[in-house]
Amino acid sequence: GAPTISIFLKPPGVIRLGGSTTICCSCQRDNGHVVLYKNGHQLRTLELRGSSAEFSIFNATQKDVGAYSCHYLDGGTVMARSETLEIQVQEFQLPEPVLSVLPGHEVAAGMDVVFHCTIAHPKAGCFLYLEGRVEAFKFLSEQRGYNLSHVHKGDEGRYSCQCFTKDASFKWSAVSKTVDLVVR
C-alpha cells in the first residue's frame, strides 16, 4: 500500500519559552527522505532512520510558532504528506500538574481507567496528551478527570497533561511527568 507519514511532538503540548522539543515524523518505510515544512515553506530535509526523522527545536521563541507538516520523499517524489501540527510557545506561569491513573498503570483489557490531572489552581482547564498523537487526546473538564472505558491495546502509551487558565490571557503550566499505561 501507499506509505503514510505522521507528525507529533515529543514531549507533546505547548512548548515553554526558551525550552526545547522534538518534532517527530514517522513513516512505515526505512529509506527515503523527510522534508519538514513550516507554514508551507520548506525548512529542513532529513534521511529516514529506523522509519522516523526527528527535528529538534532548542531555545524556543515566538519565531518557532506555526503550522508544521512532514512530506515523505522517495527518489525526489513526494509519496506522502502528514497532517498539520500547530506549535505554540508560551511562558509557563502555572505550577506543574500531576497526572495519575486509576486503578493503576497496568490494567487488564476491557477494564475502565480514569486519568486525573491535579493542579493547584481552581479555574484551570487541562489537556490530556498521548505521545504519538497530533492533537491533545482529550480536554479535561472542571473535575480534570477522563474516563477511558473498555481499554484495549490501542490505548497503551505514554500519557501526560498540561493545564491553562483563560483569564485576561491564556496562562499555561508545564507538562506533567508522564504516566505509562499498559494493557494486558
| Backbone shape | flat
Q: Mean pLDDT score, rounded?
A: 91
The counted number of beta strands is 20
Helix content: under 10%
Total DSSP helices: 0
N-to-C order of helices and strands? EEEEEEEEEEEEEEEEEEEE
Main sheet specs: 7 strands, mixed
Q: Provide the CATH superfamily of the largest domain.
A: Immunoglobulins
Which short descriptors sum up this protein?
flat; disulfide bond; Ig-like_dom_sf; glycoprotein; mainly beta; Immunoglobulin-like; repeat; 7-stranded mixed beta sheet; immunoglobulin domain
How is this structure best summarized?
The chain has 184 residues and is mainly β.
Question: Any overview of this molecule?
Answer:
The chain is mainly β and 184 residues long. The protein has two domains: 5-90, Immunoglobulin-like (Sandwich); 92-183, Immunoglobulin-like (Sandwich), CATH 2.60.40. The chain is built from no helices and 20 strands. The protein has strands spanning 5-10, 15-16, 21-27, 33-38, 41-47, 52-57, 66-74, 77-81, 85-87, 89-90, 92-94, 98-102, 106-107, 113-118, 125-130, 138-140, 145-148, 157-166, 170-175, 179-183. Strands 11, 13, 15, 16, 18, 19 and 20 form a seven-stranded mixed sheet that branches. Strands 4, 5, 7, 8 and 9 form a five-stranded antiparallel sheet that branches. A hairpin with a 2-residue loop joins strand 7 and strand 8 (77-81). The mean pLDDT is 91.
